[in-house]
Structures are given as structure tokens and as C-alpha cells.
Amino acid sequence: MEQILRNFFLFLSKNKFFTKLAKKYGLRFGAGRFVAGESVENAAKVIKQLNQKGMVVTVDHLGEFIDSEQEARQAADECVEMIEKIAEHQLDSQLSLKMTSMGLDISEALVMENMRKILAAGKRHGVFVTIDMEDYERCQKTIDIFKELKEEYDNIGTVIQAYLYRTVGDIEELNAYHPNLRLVKGAYKESPKVAFPDKQDVDENYKKIIKMHLLNGNYTAIATHDDEMIAYTKHLEKEHGIPRDQFEFQMLYGIRVERQEELTAEGYKMRVYVPYGTDWYGYFMRRLAERPANVAFVLKGVFGK
Ligand SMILES: Cc1cc2nc3c(=O)[nH]c(=O)nc-3n(C[C@H](O)[C@H](O)[C@H](O)COP(=O)(O)OP(=O)(O)OC[C@H]3O[C@@H](n4cnc5c(N)ncnc54)[C@H](O)[C@@H]3O)c2cc1C
């Protein structure tokens, strides 16, 4: 049943009609639990609250189905605006973004132009930028873009997904760049031809790449809500004497908030991924797919308390 629900929500997340409808009608159905409002101001307020609780942030301007050059340029401008807001309010926040929202499905030249604009603004204001990883079809292109930009800018990182068979090879190859990587299990529906279908294999591969990247001496963001992976990282920290300034934990806004606070209290760097914007629908559906138990929460939002 859980698998059926998961596939159903992933299917819904790709629906253009619902995406447009959701944009028109604003944050609904309890999405506000996972999305920090629709404007830059809303996001800045949430970042400030998290900073006051001792947590750092990576903020993401949500954007799905970018079909025109103009929309991609607008998305890039919004990223620059967010970077300037971070600087203006002295917020402790990085920026996350997706290559499709920068125009990956339109032209790679457009992506590079948009990214250089954002990275230059980030460099000016000391804001680090992480390229989120999307579906398998876009993985190689994303890695190629990352490599090219990493030669020019040092305020850039990207994400590697443990569920892909290619991942160990990517970690090995990227080591030459000493990259700051966010390691995740992977959020998209992929074919068994390219990704482990079994959760146990994904978990094993996740542990493997956490260990590899840390022992290679690279900065590592362990982005998970899974206690087993957190405990494994702490075990590596002790066994190999890994300094705490070489890694951080990351979790999504609104998910396992108490655990986020506990890790902060234990002295670990805890970064919260804070999405905002009018394009909240696809992100919200992917969160429901990850944990269909959240549907009960949504139903409450629809039918009242
Ligand atoms: C900061 C951040 C950035 C991310 N960026 C990307 C990206 O760029 N590309 C990408 O593909 N994916 C990304 N992801 C999503 C990621 O790939 C996973 O889909 C997502 O994190 C779920 O996997 P998990 O590791 O949290 O654990 P899961 O395997 O989903 O869950 C393991 C265990 O964690 C606990 N748990 C999980 N969720 C909850 C919850 N809501 N409440 C209570 N307990 C819970 C439960 O005990 C559960 O059994 C990101 C995730 C984070 C945290």
C-alpha cells in the first residue's frame, strides 16, 4: 500500500495542471508545514528564527516546469535577490537551486549564464550555493555543470544520491575537485536499471559514500532524517577522529524538528533546508511520497482540525 501511495504522489508531483492551479491559489493543504511561505520576506523570517535557535540554513526558491528563457532568467534573479536579502539581514544561510529552474531543459548556455550571475553574487556576499540533484536523466549534465563552475568558483557544491548504481564512481571521480557535497538517499522514482530498488541496498550504499567522502578529507553534508545514518556518522567521527568542522547534518524544514534541535544541542552543525515560493506543489507532493504517514496531516488541513 505504501509503495502504491508513494508512486501516486510522485506521479502527482509531475502534473503541470495541478502545479499551475496550486500556484494560483497559494499555500494550501498544510503545505505551510514544509514550505516557509511564498515570498523572500517570509523565507527571511523563517531563516532568522532558525538561526536564533542555533541552526544554519540552506534556502531554496521553489520552481518547477520552467518552459521559457524568460522564466529561467527570472528564477535566477530571484536567487540573486535572496542572496542580497541574506546579506542585508546578516542571515546564516546558503542557497540551494535546481538546474531545471535555471533552464537546463532549454539550453546549457542559459544555465551557465544564470549560474555565473548567482555565483558571482554569492561570492560577493559570502553565500555558498548548492546544486540540488534531480532525476537520473539530468544527473550527468548536472555533474558536468558543477565541474565546470567549480573550476571558476569555490562557493559551489552539489548533491550525490545513494540510490544510483553510478554513485560510488561519482564520489571517486569528484574527489579530484575536493568538493563540498551533500549526500542523500535520493528522492525521485528511478528505474531498477539505474537505481537500487531495495531500501536496504540504498542504505548500505549511503553508508559507503558517507565513509568514502569523509575519509577522503572532504566536507560532507549528511542530509537525512534517518537515525541509523546519523548514528553511523557519529560512529565514524569517533573511530576516525573526524573533526566536527568537516561535516554537518541537514534536514528538511518541518521534518523531525525535535531531532534537529537535539543535534544542535549536542554541538553538531545542523542545517535546515528551507524552501519557499509560489511553486510549492511539486515539492510538497515529493515530501508526501517519502512519508505517506504525512497524508493524515494533510487531510486534517483539508477537512479542518
Ligand atoms: C537537506 C536535504 C536536501 C535534500 N536534497 C535532495 C536532492 O538534492 N536530491 C534528491 O534526490 N533528494 C534530496 N533530498 C531527499 C532525500 O533524497 C530523501 O528522499 C529524503 O531525505 C528521505 O530519505 P531519508 O534519508 O530522510 O530517510 P528515509 O529512508 O526516507 O527514512 C528513514 C527513517 O527516517 C525517519 N524519518 C524519515 N522521515 C521522517 C519524518 N517525516 N518524520 C519522522 N521520521 C522520519 C524514519 O525513522 C524512517 O524510517 C534531500 C533531503 C534533505 C534532508
TrEMBL record:
Residues annotated to bind substrate: 98, 286-287
EC top class, as a word: oxidoreductase
Taxonomic lineage of the native organism: Bacteria, Bacillati, Bacillota, Bacilli, Bacillales
GO molecular function: nucleotide binding; proline dehydrogenase activity
Domain Proline dehydrogenase: 44-298
Protein name: proline dehydrogenase
Positions contributing to FAD binding: 133, 161, 185-187, 199, 224-225
The entry's keywords: FAD, Flavoprotein, Nucleotide-binding, Oxidoreductase, Proline metabolism
GO BP, sorted A to Z: L-proline catabolic process to L-glutamate
Cofactors required: FAD
Organism: Sediminibacillus halophilus
EC number: 1.5.5.2
